[in-house]
Amino acid sequence: MNAPxxxxxxxxxxxxxxxxxxxxxxxxxxxxxxxxxxKGTADQLTLQRLKREKLGLKDRIARINDLLYPDIIA
Length: 74
Description:
Blueprint: H1 12-39, H2 44-68
Helix pairs in contact: 1-2
Protein name: DUF465 domain-containing protein
InterPro entries: DUF465 (IPR007420), DUF465_sf (IPR038444)
Pfam families: DUF465 (PF04325)
């Protein structure tokens, strides 16, 4: 797929699709982090990596939301 890498150049449908994918990945990571934390078997580096990945997804979700639903102050 030769989709533009710049978020502002992507169509609204593509942005909505990516938003749903990123939200699902964010939920999956949240569940994985909780499961590892509850088991107590995960090392700190693994937890940090997963949390960093989750934070990156959160930032991407926020950027797409800003493009789809701009905060216009009237």
